[in-house]
Amino acid sequence: xxxxxxxxxxxxxxxxxxxxxxxxxxxxxxxxxxxxxxxxxxxxxxxxxxxxxxxxxxxxxxxxxxxxxxxxxxxxxxxxxxxxxxxxxxxxxxxxxxxxxxxxxxxxxxxxxxxxxxxxxxxxxxxxxxxxxxxxxxxxxxxxxxxxxxxxxxxxxxxxxxxxxxxxxxxxxxxxxxxxxxxxxxxxxxxxxxxxxxxxxxxxxxxxxxxxxxxxxxxxxxxxxxxxxxxxxx
Length: 234
Ligand SMILES: [Zn+2]
Prior knowledge:
With 234 residues, this protein is mainly alpha-helical. The protein is built from 4 helices and 4 strands; from the N terminus they run H-H-H-E-E-H-E-E. It has helices at 2-83, 88-168, 177-187, 209-216; strands at residues 192-196, 199-200, 221-222, 229-231.
């Protein structure tokens, strides 16, 4: 008789573990999908920011370009004036102005190149983000598709397990059924603990000889320390 209840509880323990695994697989899908959706929103926000960065870099590049053109026409104008200078002194002044303007032009040219480079870098990053977004969207689609396929299989598996568990729970004596439901509600598969040698395998408390005898003779007994239902795995 004693080994009968222990054998029943062992079966029940195994079924509860399978149920917990199946339930966690069932919730894993939506969890992954939710995570993926949040990541996509984050990338989309990054893309919007990056579009602004591209726009800003274009604007600064255009501004430098405009400065460069203005400087170039200033130089042309000065060179024209140089040709019609009326005195040596005037000639020297205009020549100095040209030198200064050319130095400025050199600086603008350099900044102009840097500006173009910044536009390229910003555009490349935008492209990268776009590619990342497309990849993530495809992944999400395939995660969704495979979960949709998996879901009914998991659900019917869970249904079968729940029936098997109800059947297996019949091994628990009627006067302990309320305790059992409370335990199972609180701990799931952890509601049961097998004896390992003389110890409760869940909390490693030693089970008294007297309790071991009671378990062997078919009593439904909970660990005095952790409260889990004990069974002898045989
Ligand atoms: Zn225990």
